[in-house]
Amino acid sequence: MRACLLLLLALPAVAAELLNWDSDAEVLAYLERAGSRLVQNGATTPKRTLLSQLRRAQCRLELTAAPALVREPAELYSRARGSVLIVAGVYRCRRCADWHVTVASGFVVARNGVAVTNCHVFQSEEPEGFVAMTRNGEVLAVREVLAASEADDLAVIQLELPPTITLEPLPLARGKEAAPVGARISVISHADSHFYLLTEGVISRYLDWAVGSRVVPRVGITADFAVGSSGAPVLNARGEVVAVVCATHTVFADKTHGKRLPQMTLKLCVPVDRLRALCASATAR
Fold first, then answer.
1. What CATH number was assigned to the domain covering residues 2-159?
2. Hey, CA dihedral for 117, 122, 125, 126, is it positive or negative?
3. pTM over 0.85
């Protein structure tokens, strides 16, 4: 009975044919309708349950092997975008009583519906439930947090995946050698609800970054991203995930008239080794 209910609640892949992906407003409205339907029908896991699962430190995954070919950006985007997810928190607006979503990014790491996004995506106040939308237009409930790290700002999540839907995972790189400083990288994200936006740049540095009283490893990149890009994959030229988007840090200059003028914005990401640490028993297939 539960399997039948989930098949009914998950929107079919053919629905994507009705979407105009060039219209961010249309995609957002579709996501709001589909996501609110799942939340109202009780198909999503309550937020308090997901928050309690953020304490899980590790999980076991079988990861895909890395591809061998360096690809041009157009081909890389065409191949990788199907593995990138729109991760959304669904909530009823207190001002207009309509349903809305908070948009973030994520990506698939295992064919059975395991995906990755940022830990902080689940810590915002508004959402009542969480869903993920694929490039094919399926809207799936976030069922469980398998493992998370607040320091690394990573969450490994399990989607409610009906047997009629298949997901293609992105391969995870191994270490800095897969993306040394100066290496070309690409980001596919949903910056400010501009869906499936491709930006390019290079690895600018590896660094230690202070988060409260802790010091954590981070990767600096020059590819642009913004609010809504949280959890997006940073890909090297072979399509391997080398880092996960997590934060920005703006550098200001103080002028004599007292105003703080922005000079540049640092783009900070979590190195892929920290994701592999969450998947302690991961093996390549």
1. 2.40.10.10
2. positive
3. yes
